[in-house]
Amino acid sequence: MLLDGWSGPLLWQEIQRLYREGETAALPLPVAYKEYIAWLGRQDRERARAFWRTELSGVEGPTPLHVERVSRGGAETAGRRHTVRRVLSRAETARLQQVARRSQTTMSTLLQCAWGYLLHSYSGEETVVFGLTVSGRPAEVAGVEGMVGLLIQTVPVRMEFGEGVGLDTWLRARHSRQAAYTEYGYLGLSEIRRLSEVSGEQGLF
């Protein structure tokens, strides 16, 4: 069975209810995954391809991070993964929420922009690309919020810096762009990558 993070709690709730109530449990009728597949088949894939070709025009490779890749012991560190955790205080969180409200965006957009700016700072590139996971649950499919299955998609996010626009204006523009990423994310990352100018075995990010 293939599940995404959204589906896990849904399945767990049903298991708990069956455990408590047994065969008498009146579970809601499941939303058939085929409804999502049918929706997918009705989408204008050529329009989606045109969007991604335009969005990724000029992107020829992943954003380079000009950081030291050798540890103090001399060992190569490329490919290793590290996790950095930062817990924000209530005051810091409140300030970020205030910025999001003022710019009529969301915390998600705000955090994406912060990540994009970090990549811009490390790479020195005016254009950066990174991956974003979206739910992949279209509102047009009735009951999709209760569907169990693998619907998430990862899409490339392109950000431009050096345009000299105000913060609120930039955040609102990014928020609108995210809606387009979500709308056309159904195309799938592998096909989106083939539509770009990235060569060889390189990824988009």
UniProtKB/TrEMBL annotation:
GO MF, one example: phosphopantetheine binding
Matches recorded under InterPro entries: CAT-like_dom_sf, Condensation_dom
An example Gene Ontology CC term for this record: cytoplasm
Top-rank lineage group of the source organism: Bacteria
Domain Condensation: 2-202
Single GO BP term: secondary metabolite biosynthetic process
Pfam families, alphabetized: Condensation
Protein name as it appears in the record: Non-ribosomal peptide synthetase
Organism of origin: Photorhabdus khanii subsp. guanajuatensis
